[in-house]
User: Fold DUF2809 domain-containing protein from Mucilaginibacter angelicae.
Amino acid sequence: MSKWLWKLKKHKQPLIKLNISKAPDGCLFCCIYLTDIYSMPKSRPVYFALVIITIILGLLSRHFKSIPLFIGDILWATMVYFIMRFLFISKPVKFNVIAALLFCFAIEFSQLYKAPWINDLRHTLFGRLVLGEGFLWSDLLCYVIGLGMGVEIERLSFKHKKQNRVNRL
Assistant:
């Protein structure tokens, strides 16, 4: 069963495809992927789709115990980068990387603050996912890796589009 979740009005093509299939043993498989991202413009719907996909992957990484916890931290930073690109689409990549890095580091260092009200907030699902629970130096490295991953995904995705445009000239 395949469903098109979202179409770009301008290009009349599907942006996100959700494919759910059932294996012979009864297991369900869910595949979410961007379709033909190379012909997509750098636009807010593309970054919104990347944010949603990254959130889903991050939540799945916390659900399966076989996936190391640091993968969620990497995906969290990647999501923050895509959110920054969504909000500041006309700004250069360097601006968005610095803004995302400052945001990630500020959230991590805020975990050193242990007031009762913020600890109560951290014990909720929202607080755990957004604010985290405890400061770890290794998380800072995960954030740098996640931001690098976001920049690389964007570079590879939109590089192909630029090359096609040059080849047509």
